[in-house]
Amino acid sequence: IGKSCILKQKFDKIPNIRVLQIRCIPGESFDRLVIDFANELNLEQKFNNSNQILEIIETFSNIYIVFENAENLLNEVGEFRDEELEDFIFKLADNFLNNPKKKIFITTSRAIKFKTQLHTMSENYTIYGLKEDDAIALFTELYRMYSSDNFEIDLPKISEKVVKYLYGHPLAIKLAAKQCSEISPEELQYDLS
Q: Which of 18, 93, 105, 117 has the fewest Cβ atoms within 10 angstroms?
């Protein structure tokens, strides 16, 4: 939530940019990602292969493609499970290489080991959230603000667990505080275990 939100805020400031956000789901196949692309492009036609998607994307002069939560598509050593997907991303990157108005962003909590030449075409950026103390203070304040009942919970311990899981991203912390304030202490402890 935090990484995607930060990117979205940055993209909103850039005029005339088309942003395609592809949410990567655990176990998702490349065929499913092609359907996600078609949906993001508001296309109703069926695609036989990724080349048709590439042809359509080439028609955009300004486009950013965001693969969110790409760790869901990686194997245990950090490589894409589906070689067809990496090949598709490579073709996109090759097409976008000399155009600063066309970019691919891959958000992931793990390092990616590319099998193709993508490693020579990419730059890694780390998006940092709030410092841990500030993030805990924010969660605690928001939790107390949202909570209608004063449940007997170990708020410092819960705050620390939640903040670590969310990497200190403010929007994610805000959403988590709201959601945590609406469930019982037992449910909250269970969800955090």
A: 117
